[in-house]
Structure formats: structure tokens, C-alpha cells
Amino acid sequence: MKRTSLLVLIISIINSVNAQIPSDTSRAKLHGFLDSVQTADVYQYDTKDDLNQSMDCAKIISNPNGGFIAVYHHYSSSQPQVFLSTSTDFLTWDVQVALASNASQPTIAESTGGGYVVAWEQEPSNHIKVVYYSSLTSLFNNTAANSFDISRTLSDCAEGTPNIYYASSTEVNIGFHYFQNCTVDRQARGILSNFNNWNCEALSNFDNSLLYWGVAGNIGDRDAFVYDDYDFGVIEGQYINGDFGSWRSFIFDYQTNNAEQLNIVTHNGSTAFANPTVSMMDIDERLAIVTTLFLPSEGAASGEAGELMYYRFLEDEPSVSVVPVVEESASFKIFPNPAQNLIRVEMSSNDPILNYTIIDLLGNQKLRGTLKGGLSGINTSQLQTGTYILQLENHQTKMFEVVRK
To answer: Least enclosed by CB within 10 Å: which of 7, 28, 341, 356?
Structure first.
């Protein structure tokens, strides 16, 4: 059996299995909670602290004394600092302490057995630093009980943007990205034991779930949470490397190892969304889902650039329509497949002119151009033997193969 046929068969089997996965209904409800900022119970764009500092890439957890705790970074004179602030109303934030200098992309988690663990990306030699605080008081005073600078393992250039899956005083399970081949960010996960031993590995399943949709740039920041007793995550993907306006955020389903793009609707129509976090917490004795996103200026509508925070109570059923996921069997055809020097793309006659991108399975962009409705051709003579993904600008995708005789 040819490799393409086998790949199509595997995708078909996976889609068939996924159709029966119980998490489908819960994942669809998550879209309703996360997609519409307009229907959030509380929201704020371009969030700043009481020092008028932007609260970029914030992660929010509950404050046991009431209200909220946020860690975030702010750039001053081109240097990032990590801050911790508290709030009682989710809208006004008071700085408690600066936790680190030359540091960014922080995250925080309660430690089992008491205390807190904070992790961030430390400069120079961009790497992850993990700090354990034995109590809330020690956290607010920045008095660490333990800390560890994790040496880069998977990349010679950079590793960072951590999230915390699990934390205790002796073990921290961390997700992060590494700068693969010093070219593009890809996903990894590791365990820090006793604050002196680090083991990690790359996560190709995470990468593949976004490469499938044509994400050809960085695959970066992520967060994880439990909803309806299922494990879910959110993760950012950049469709075009270097283009901040092409950042999008996705739901990741740990039951299926598949991702699907969030269809986030803001009040003024922003289009780019990065650094997603989700926290489940009690607010006024009601369970809520708290979301943060960074809106880069390149894709932000008027008044919306910066850090977006919003939450919605889970007792309120989502009213936002769920955008259907475009499966691999998208509404266009590619032939011949396998191809040599030319593929033909057949779309429905009412399709407009669409931009297309062809990437390889590592996410490297190979070709770009435009296609007209109906039947068009793409010259593939520059492509080497291998499997590629054709992505249209509406994110429909199909795989095809090039074979050189």
C-alpha cells in the first residue's frame, strides 16, 4: 500500500474513533464558554496594574484570602520583569511584588501540600527557572524556599513559556516550548525532581495537532485544565512564521490528541490571539472558567490590543454557536495524488480567489500563491519527494504526496 493511501486510511480510522469519543460534547461546550468575549460575565481589554503597567501574558489563580492572584510580565526599557498582583474585582490589580528581572512568560500553580510554584523564562541564555514558595506570605515577600535554573536540553538557542501541569515541593511537571533548530518553536514537557534533576522530551503529538491545520510558524504557549472530568488544554499557533497577526489559539483534547481552533469573538473584531490560559475557580461561590489572552497589535481591533481577561460562570449554558471543525475531507479536491510537477485543485465554482500555502510535515513553508474558483494548477516541480499539506486561507487543508521518479 502506498504511503499516502496508508496515511489517508489512518486519518479515516482516527476520525471514526474520534466521532465516538465522549469528550466531544464537553469540547463543544468549551467553545461556547471561550469563544465569545461579548457574552462573558466580566471582561477587560488592555489590562494594566496600579502602576499603569501592561499585564502581558498573565496567568490567574484564586487568592485564598479572597479574589485573584496574577503573575505576568511587563517590559520597561526593553527589559522584561515578572510581577505578581492581586485583585478583588478582577478589574483593578494591585502590585504586590516584582518576582524577577530579565524574565518573562510566567505561570503559577498551587503546590500540593501547601505553598506555590512559579516558573518563567529567564534571560540571558533563555531557559526555564522554577521557584517554590512555602506559603502565600513567602510568595508575596518573594522569599523562595527552593529554586532551580533548568539548563537547555532540546535547543541550543532558547527554551521557555512554561506552564505547570502538576506542582509539589519535590516535583514539578512542566510544559514548555523549545526553539527547534533555532528556527521555530515546538512543544515539549519535562519533570523537575527535588529541584535538582530534570528530564524532558519533545511532544510531537502536540505539534502535529496544529501542523494538521497548516500552522507553519511557532507553536508556543499553552495551558491545561480539567472540564467535565476530561483533560483539555489551550495552545497558541502562528500560521505564518514571524507574522504576529497570524497568531491563533486552539483547544487541545488530551483524549484524542487533536486540536481545533477557537473562534474568538471580541467586541470590536480582533483577529489575533496568543498566550492563552484557562483556570477553573470559584468566584462568589460559583464555579467559573477564567481565560486570558494576549492580543498583539497586528491583529487587534481598536482599543483591544494587550492583555484580555474574562470569565464566565459555568452554570450558564453557552449560547454561542459552535463553528464546525473542517475535517481533512475539505470541500476541494487535489489530483493527481501522488503528483510530480503539477497538482490540480478543484473547488466549487462559487469559491472566491483564495491564498494558499504548502508546508511539509515539519511545518516548513514551501510554496505560497493564489487559486481561483473552479479548477486551478500549482507547479510542484520545486518540491522534493515527500508528503505535504495544502492549506487554503479559510484553513481547509488536504495532504498530498510528491513522488520523483
So the answer is: 341
pTM value is: 0.75
Q: In this structure, how many other beta carbons lie within 10 angstroms of the beta carbon of residue 78?
A: 5
CB 286 within 8 Å of CB 33: no
* Torsions phi, psi for 341 (to 5 deg): -105, -5
Cβ atoms of 330 and 346 within 8 Å: the answer is no
- What Cα–Cα distance (Å) separates residue 287 from each residue in 41, 88, 266? 12, 16, 23
Number of Cβ within a 10 Å radius of residue 7: 16
Superfamily for the 23-313 domain = Glycosyl hydrolase domain; family 43 (2.115.10.20)
pLDDT higher than 80, residue 3: no
* Set of cell numbers at residue 390: 495544502
The widest CA-to-CA distance across the chain, in whole angstroms, is 69
Q: What is the pLDDT of residues 269-303, one digit of tens each?
A: 999 999 999 999 999 989 999 999 999 999 999 99
Residues 373, 222: Cα–Cα separation, whole Å? 37
Sorted by sequence, the CB contacts under 8 Å of residue 276 that are 6+ apart come out as 221, 222, 223, 234, 235, 236, 249, 262, 291, 292, 293
